[in-house]
Amino acid sequence: YNISKRTNFRVSSVLNKEVKQYGKQFMFDAHEDTSWSSDEGTPQWITVIFDEPQNISGFEFQFQGGFAGKKSEILMYTEDGAQIHQESFYPEDNNSPQQFQLKDTSQEKACSKIKFIFESSTDLFGRIIVYNLQVLS
Question: What is the distance in angstroms between the CA of the first residue and the CA of the last residue of the chain?
């Protein structure tokens, strides 16, 4: 799925509120030297709201090593806000792109919103740094 300008994003926090340097937009700009950096604390989260409902097969994250999610979860919602899927995932603590495939049942219904929750982080202070996020359809 190509994240369009009409897709809406929300994040739990931005490091020192410096949106121009560490804002959510940098997860989707395809530049290797920009990233979203959260502030301290857990949980941290990312919400993606699609302009049209999507059938999602998986997703890909690229974290900064030392600032990756540990115990993490994806929640998927329909257009009317009903939760249709919940699944845990466990990223590795490295800089490489990591792809996660969803269980088959999640692809049966189109979702309008997904939320990634990072219940814990490899960083002692709970910070998360994401260079790239892709949603796979």
Answer: 5
Q: What is the residue whose two structure tokens read 């560490």?
A: 22
Question: CA-to-CA distance for 86 and 111, rounded, in angstroms?
Answer: 12
What integer is the mean pLDDT of 92-104?
A: 93
| Ramachandran category for residue 104: left, alpha or beta (phi over 0 → left; psi -120 to 50 → alpha) | alpha
Write the single-letter amino acid at 103: K
Q: What is the 3-state secondary structure of the chain?
A: CCCCCCCEEEECCCHHHCHHHHCHHHHCCCCCCCCEECCCCCCEEEEEEEEEEECCCEEEEEECCCCCECCEEEEEECCCCCEEEEEEECCCCCCCCEEEECCHHHHCCCEEEEEEEECCECCCCCCCEEEEEEEEC
**Assessment of whether the complete model's pTM goes beyond 0.85:** yes
Rounded Cα gap, residues 50 and 48, in angstroms: 6
pLDDT of the residue at 109: 80
Closest CA to 117 of 108, 105, 126, 125: 126
Six token digits for residue 12: 């739990």
